[in-house]
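ugh ok so i messed up the first submission bc i forgot one of the chains. this is the corrected input, ALL of the components this time, i swear. 770 residues overall. if the numbers dont match what u have on ur side tell me asap before i send this to the collaborators (the ones from the other lab, u know who)
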Amino acid sequence: MTIKWYRCSANPKKVNKAGALQLLGTSTIQPRDDFDLRAPVVVLTYNAGLLNVNYAEIAGRYYFVEEPTLDTGGRMTFRCSPDLLMINRAEILNLEAILARSSDVFNSYIADGQTVHQSNDETINYSLGTLGTGYGASLVFAAIGGRGT
Amino acid sequence: MKRVYLFSDAACTQQYGQFVTQDWNGEEALVTAEDSYGNIRADAQSEEISGIEDTVYSTANVGLEDIWGSGPELASVAGSTIPFPLGEVEELHGTDQPTTHYLYCEGGVRLSYQYYHFSDTHTTGVLLKCPEYLTGYDEHGVPVYTAAHIYGDTMGPRAWMGYANPLLNAIQPMTFSDDNTNVRLIMCEAPITFTKTTAPTFEVTHQAFMPVLVADYNGTLTTLNSFFPSALTINVLNYDEYIPDPEGDQTSTGSNVYQDGQGNGLGVSDPAEHIDLATRNTAFAWGGSGVGLTYYKVTPGDLRKIVSEVWGGIFNMSSLINTDTIRNCIIGAFALPIGITGDTATSTVWVGNVPVNCNDTAYFITSSRLVAGTTNPLEPAERFTEDGWGDFNDFMHSTATLYLPFYGSVNIDIHTIARGSLSVEIVIDQYNGNIGYWVYTTSMQAPNAEPILYGCYTGNCAIEFPISGFGYSGNLLQKILNTGSAVSDGVGQIGSGVVGIASGNIAGGASSAGGGAMSALSAIRSQIVDVFTKSVANRGGIVDPMSACISPYDVTLQIRRARPLRPDPTRQIEGIPSATKIHLRDLSGYVKVKECNINTMTCTADEKMEILRMLKEGVYL
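and heres the new structure output, hopefully the right one now
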């Protein structure tokens, strides 16, 4: 069984981390009985080059790797947990979903409860026109009268 | 209430409110009547209207506006000048039997027409453009003519559909030679290019009248039958009805003329082309001869003369105490904040049987509707267009308040104008200073739609001042007249007709019979205050009528908006709400799933649920 040890710089929430993996080393191991692929524990001969490992590919599956522990007898132990997003990335991308939020396809007119507002509102006055020129502009006088012509 | 276009000649008058009439189904309908460029002719007077009923082509002077600006005033006009859309248009070729052509709504085109009869030859004029190649045929095989209408000195469409304007500037200069030729101008809203080809001229069509129900701002309906002859032909069309077919049967296709063929609303691209109530509604006409009840536009000098004549000698003080002479003669005097021009100049102002020589500086006011001068203070207010943030904040975290001078503040539902627009049109009744505001809005849902009437608001911008009033300080009058001493000496009362006008009653009358000046003034003041307490000033309190002088004159729309904080790269990190259904492979960046079907995945059940949980928390693709 081949194990590839990586230093992963991607966000753990990123589905496809392929572009963020730096290979630190490769190991070929003989798995012992009850080697659990759900939470593999790998014991290797101490290798200083693997001290910065945080990601691994084991048997074609991808795992987050904790800080290795150093054991007696010149050994180091790596405890791994599966990265389900990376492992199932092909099927995940084939999923059809109803989105709640997206940075790619979105609707700005849906109320966003996560938006933070300042308390000082912005006030804008728009003058739509001025009525008249001031009092006394015109005087109107109405009366009944006249003799006519 | 549906809207119809009233095809009639000066058949519409309006007092403050709306025109109501009946369509050919007898259903109540709201009337809209326009001239060739969307304005209801406002100059018709009662005596002019009466001549029309005799014959279709009577030469009633309906006082058309001079569309040429500085050109000669148009002379008498026969026939209707009120256009109608989608109506049956008859083309007369010098025979008694009209050739019928139909103009109808095609893809949202709204057509109307105006007829001018030029009795003089003009060196510049209007050339009706209707090149042959632009004519089409309707489904009945009837030729459909389109043309551009004239307003001012340019031809233009109404651009209701938001299309680019036709090449109107190419029609320069317009030449026209008409000698007793009846020309009908057709207003076209289709995006059609015009060239300077010789166009056929259209002649007079018949006209039709209908009794009109006028509603004043109190909602009281009055039938103005007395102004109109009996109906000849009903050419009232529901705006969403098709024009009649050649056989004359009225059929409705349900098409909406305010939409194009795709159901998009027609647009108003230019506030100047918007319906202009200030000049559209025909006014209530009264007086003009100095005999009977007459309204005058006067100068302070005229008023001084009037006052001095009335109080200075002709009238006996004791007789005033014992009679109601002055009160019955003087109906009112008030100042307006806007300039009015009046109509005919007169050298004599009659107060009772006393002629006051005003040295030709007084003018009869013969129309209730304000006639705009060269500087129109009632230009449709600038159209406000909401810029906003371009997102939900414009609707949910914004408020709008519209301040209308002499009315107060109106809360505008932000949903009606957010990302849309608002415009205000104003009409003032010169007889009493009543001012009406029509607020129109368009929202982003239909940015090119015809503005919707948001509301009508009425106030009063007149400051009434008593010509006389015992004990009245006369300070205001003093300021207005710039006199050295108060003119309040003397007894008498201002006719409560002034206040009565504000209440819809033009006839004068005593506010309190036999009461002293103070009680009369109190009564008047209380009525004035009552008028103004119906509207609340922008910052609370009751607008004292005298303090209306210092009310802001600007129609102001105030928008308050919350300030959202969205520093970069907010969108990339937490996304923006989305309700889209999409395959994740078509996305990039941050995504938070509301729900998705994970049954297609082949991992274990626990892993499926864990993956779904993570998708709902948000992942990066």
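quick check: The first strand of chain A starts at residue 2 and ends at 8. that seems consistent at least. Helices of chain A lie at 84-87, 89-93.
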